[in-house]
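[Q] Does anyone have a clean structure-token version of this?
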Amino acid sequence: MNERRRRPWLMLAVAATVAAVAIRLWLIDLPLERDEGGYAYIADRWLAGETPYHDTVDSKPPGVFAVYALALAAHRSVVAIHATLIATTLLSGLLLFGLIRRRFGERVAGLAAAMLALAQVAPAYFGFSANAEMYLVVAILAAFRLADAPGFASAFAAGGLLGIAALFKPVALTEGLPLAILLLWGEETLRRRIVRAAVALSGFVFVIVAVWSYFALQGVGREMAFWSFGYNFGYAGRLTAAQRLGSLLYEIGKRDLLMRDGFVWLAALAGLVVFLRRRRRFDWFAATWLFSALLGVAASGRFTPHYWQQWLPPLCLAAAVGADAVWRRLEEKGRRPVVFAAGALGVALLAVYPTLTDLPLIAQGPRLTRTLFGLNPFPEAPLIGEYLARHTRPDETIYIVGSEPEFLFHARRRHASPLLFYAPLTAPTPLAADLQRRVWNDLEREKPRYLVWMNLSTSLTLEKNSSLDLLAGLNFLLAEAYDREAALVATAPDRTAFLTADLPPAGKGPIVLDLYRRRDPPAAPK
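[A] Here you go.
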């Protein structure tokens, strides 16, 4: 492709990336949602000298905590956390473009990079939130880029980057399939290819062992391995095929993904046909990548919007290849105006149309959080955190009956229990009973100054067969030692009021959360 024909596709990629960065800047101060709040709290406590998996526990590997810690070390703010997403947008586009340009040409590379930049920021995929998938994608793309290069050093680095990706989320392990194709299928001798694959495996093991050793030296090696990998693998096998299918259909319907991305999926299907017909090394890699990434999305059976971020790079690649195949067919006809018009329409449907459907959401700015998450108290978290900070000493603790660690981050106060989220406590598994006992022991030891009681099922994550023993004990504790002091009350479907007087009766009306303060012990007689 000559320079004149190459330039429009490079410009398209640049323009889409600039637009994506502008959207990120527009949404940079969006309130932290609960997953982000957990990462921020753990990173904050880590910087304060505490140890993840001992003093603070979440069922995630440490990669995302480390990124948040770096951001908060630079500037302790929500803006600093979300600024890291600008870097992921730029790196993802550059890495995808570089990975596929030599194999498929500038047209495919430019269109794929443009589609990826805009898809990654889409509210349909929770692109505004700094979730682990955003960083995982960069590590995977870098691993593939290096695996496609010759030499043993690049193979070792590729394996190490896959290890880093797995330290963001274990589902990155599915990307070992396309990585193996890049390493084992090529023009080099079979022996050299096998050695490169072995070197890549050693790079993967090196990274995992090095990070595990750090936590082992802190005395929490077993805990880190369990919460990073063991718990997640056990959780992934809990759902039936029917539950997984139901979750998939629910998310597609709720996010209007078929309407939003229908053209992209059709183009990707055409691209998959191209891959399977040509059967070249990189075509098999791309087809396998499309499958392995989707397997990663489906691993937990939940299909949460941000999980789909892992699938976006191979989806955009396949869609760009499918669109290019159609474009070439039209070029063979020789009618340039028709080719140009059809190509412009195709680019619009693939890259521009999905973003246009998101503009009403993006235009809301900070209100986007309320639209997508309803009455989950993410916008109110700074206010609640400030209230808790004003009414507690730095050495006093808080316990949240629910999953809202963003309150703790804003309050700069410790949680009374290392366990931050309720999902492990309320899941119908044998482990839940032991975890509930651990929490109860933490509460007896810490005697938290405040209990923040969430009244939302999304925060408590109660399931059909959840054990309610801990909640029953907490109700008894409230009556025995705590007074109700404040409440967050819904005044409209999209508005709340934080009340400290004239509280509505507990358990009555649209109360999002209640704050209970521990009574001071009676004064000793003189």
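[Q] Thanks! Anything notable?
[A] The radius of gyration is 25 Å.
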